[in-house]
């Protein structure tokens, strides 16, 4: 009986394996592997626990199959106080210089006078020049919860000792922590995805860099996302792409209104120093660069990008380079705008943005414990979370596309 609780004879099977591995026999099908290998199955040949009906009763040895999971986009988490349900962001607006009045003649100056300022006239040093301040507001928060029941005695029949029961509970606690990590990752991915789609929908040419289009215009070629991958084209394109990314990060250091949403009537100039610049690049593409270009360079250290975070996929692990979402963002009028249609794209390879452009904060997360149920021998725990996710289009951000 395959994978049954019986003792199988393995000599015949192993004789066939050894004969082939030592050259005594030609390659041939090795069958009856179920006499030798125990594979995972859900069918249970002994009784199960009486509560969740999923764990078998006492077993010889138990492997607790869990490991810690740490979400890859933790850099988007920001600290924030839990009190209140709104956030305001104050930004001073840029002011222009004016002529130095110490060297200006009054409009009523009489050229016949020896006093250039005119007798009886003065410069008003008490004129009011108010500093303009832009206030942007972020409203609301989101909540979710996770419920879990802890049984005191019901698993005794499925454990061999108190120590094993402790290990079981530790496994379950670890998995609940992993659940929370996955949802933390989900917040970060959605923020990153929404920013990319917002910039694409906004259609500001300063914020979307079409790498192949720029490279073709510069070199006079007509490369596509397929032909650029050939050995004859790839290395030269990557050398240029590296320089383009470094140039973009350098331009973000300058105080300007480039690479950001300019709100009508507000002269806000921003700059992003390297320590405040976050670069996210599509990992499969970067791995191709590492193996196809950098590995063959004598001075590979000369081909350096700003520190970046490798992104395995933007939205779906099944279609890693594709995005499909209807973003919400701030338009030039300072109002909330929802895109008229879903933004779809499968050419995004990078996102460069100021750390203040997107982020999420846990405002309040806690675990509530119910009283002990004296009849049911269990108690409940409820993990509750309230968080705020922020996107500021007036901060600098650039999307890199391979098209």
Spell out the key features of this protein.
403 residues; alpha+beta; 5-stranded mixed beta sheet; 3-stranded antiparallel beta sheet; phage-related protein like fold
Overview of this protein structure:
The longest helix has 41 residues, at 162-202. The chain is α+β, with helices and mostly antiparallel strands and 403 residues long. Helices cover 23% and strands 22% of the residues. It is built from 5 helices and 14 strands. The chain has a domain at 137-401: Alpha-Beta Complex (phage-related protein like fold), CATH 3.90.1690. The relative contact order is 0.16.
Write the layout of secondary structure elements.
Blueprint: H1 11-21, E1 86-92, E2 133-139, E3 142-151, H2 162-202, E4 208-210, H3 211-219, H4 231-252, E5 277-282, H5 283-292, E6 308-311, E7 323-325, E8 328-330, E9 336-338, E10 343-345, E11 348-354, E12 358-369, E13 378-391, E14 397-401
Parallel strand pairs: 4-14, 5-6
Antiparallel strand pairs: 1-2, 3-13, 5-11, 7-10, 8-9, 11-14, 12-13
Describe the structure concisely.
The protein has a domain at 137-401: phage-related protein like fold, CATH 3.90.1690. It is 23% helix and 22% strand.
Helix-strand string? HEEEHEHHEHEEEEEEEEE
Extract low-pLDDT stretches. none
Q: Kindly report the average pLDDT value.
A: 82
Q: Tell me the span between the first and last alpha carbons.
A: 58 Å
Q: Which structural class do the helices and strands define?
A: alpha+beta
Number of strands: 14
Helix share, percent = 10-25%
The geometry reads as flat
């Amino acid at each position: 009986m395959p994978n049954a609780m019986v003792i199988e004879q393995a000599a015949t099977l192993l004789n066939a394996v050894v004969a082939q591995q030592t050259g005594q026999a030609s390659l041939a099908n090795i069958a009856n592997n179920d006499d030798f290998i125990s594979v995972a199955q859900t069918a249970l040949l002994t009784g199960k626990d009486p509560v969740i009906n999923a764990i078998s009763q006492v077993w010889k040895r138990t492997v607790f199959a869990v490991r810690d999971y740490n979400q890859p986009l933790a850099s988007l988490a920001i600290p924030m106080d839990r009190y209140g349900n709104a956030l305001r962001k104050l930004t001073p607006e840029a002011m222009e210089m004016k002529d130095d009045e110490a060297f200006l003649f009054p409009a009523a100056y009489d050229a016949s006078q020896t006093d250039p300022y005119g007798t009886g006239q003065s410069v008003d040093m008490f004129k009011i020049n108010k500093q303009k301040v832009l206030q942007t507001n972020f409203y609301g928060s989101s909540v979710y919860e996770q419920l879990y029941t802890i049984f005191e005695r019901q698993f005794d029949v499925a454990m061999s000792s108190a120590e094993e029961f402790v290990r079981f509970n530790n496994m379950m606690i670890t998995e609940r922590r992993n659940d929370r990590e996955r949802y933390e990752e989900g917040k970060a991915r959605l923020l990153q995805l929404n920013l990319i789609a917002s910039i694409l929908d906004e259609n500001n040419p300063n914020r979307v860099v079409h790498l192949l289009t720029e490279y073709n215009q510069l070199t006079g070629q007509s490369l596509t996302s397929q032909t650029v991958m050939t050995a004859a084209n790839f290395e030269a394109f990557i050398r240029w792409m590296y320089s383009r990314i470094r140039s973009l990060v350098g331009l973000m250091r300058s105080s300007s209104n480039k690479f950001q949403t300019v709100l009508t009537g507000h002269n806000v100039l921003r700059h992003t120093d390297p320590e405040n610049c976050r670069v996210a690049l599509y990992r499969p593409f970067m791995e191709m660069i590492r193996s196809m270009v950098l590995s063959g360079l004598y001075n590979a250290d000369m081909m350096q990008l700003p520190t970046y975070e490798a992104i395995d996929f933007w939205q779906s692990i099944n279609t890693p380079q594709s995005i499909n979402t209807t973003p919400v963002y701030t338009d030039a009028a300072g109002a909330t705008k929802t895109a008229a249609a879903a933004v779809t794209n499968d050419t995004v390879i990078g996102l460069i943005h100021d750390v203040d452009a997107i982020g999420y904060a846990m405002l309040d997360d806690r675990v509530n414990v119910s009283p002990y149920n004296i009849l049911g021998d269990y108690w409940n725990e409820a993990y509750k979370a309230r968080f705020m996710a922020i996107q500021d289009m007036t901060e600098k951000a650039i999307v890199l596309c391979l098209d």
